[in-house]
Specification:
With about 190 residues, this protein is an alpha/beta fold. It is built from ten helices and six strands. It has two domains: about 40 residues, no CATH class; about 150 residues, Rhodanese-like domain (Oxidized Rhodanese, domain 1, 3-Layer(aba) Sandwich).
């Protein structure tokens, strides 16, 4: 008899838990439909979908395009990884603007990167979103020509493209690299407005 009561209480608890779950799910769906900015129930979370603007323009740059921009010194490359990762190795033409410390670098970005600059951000790993976050922040700041090199560091290494270790890219005096040219004191519109 005691076991019958225990089994009965167990089934009742399971049934009540299931009912609560179903009611919560229905309430959530109804609230979502009542919102003015309804959230999609099914979404594409691929990098391609995340990096496509509302206009339909993709923020993704191919490795070939990035290679050409770097070798022609025609873009500012920003490594969104940590300074420790950057020192271990980075794309030769890149500067380190770690996404997780972006607030510390924001003045440097405003002062040294013109509004119309081509910017390529990258990090490491297929699921690394640091470069995506950095690119979106730069777009929100008014930069219009920003691209993301997905899994940039790994793909760059695998292609055997030029890399450096240490802090060489920061201030080694090499003329010709876009960032070093931009390091000269200049006034851009954002700095003037502050």
């Amino acid at each position: 008899m005691k076991t019958d009561r225990i089994v009965g209480k167990t089934w009742r608890a399971i049934w009540q838990s299931g009912l609560i779950f179903i009611l919560a799910a229905v309430a959530g769906l109804l609230m979502n439909q009542a919102r003015s900015d309804t959230l999609p129930l099914v979404a594409d979370w691929s990098p391609e979908a995340r990096l496509t603007e509302n206009s339909g323009e993709s923020l993704i740059i191919s490795l070939e395009e990035a290679k050409a921009l770097c070798s022609d010194k025609d873009a500012v490359f920003l490594d969104a990884r940590s300074p420790e990762d950057y020192v271990q190795g980075h794309i030769r033409c890149a500067q380190n603007i770690p996404w997780q410390s972006f607030d510390e670098y924001i003045d440097r970005v405003f002062e040294t990167i013109p509004d119309n600059a081509r910017i390529v951000t990258y990090c490491d790993g297929e699921h690394c979103s640091l470069s995506e976050d950095l690119a979106k922040e730069l777009l929100s700041m008014g930069y219009e020509n920003v691209k993301v090199l997905l899994n940039g560091w790994t793909r760059w290494l695998e292609a055997g493209l030029p890399v450096e270790k240490g802090h060489e890219g920061h201030s080694d005096g090499r003329e010709g690299y876009q960032w070093n040219l931009l390091m000269r004191p200049t006034m851009n519109m954002r700095t003037a407005k502050r």
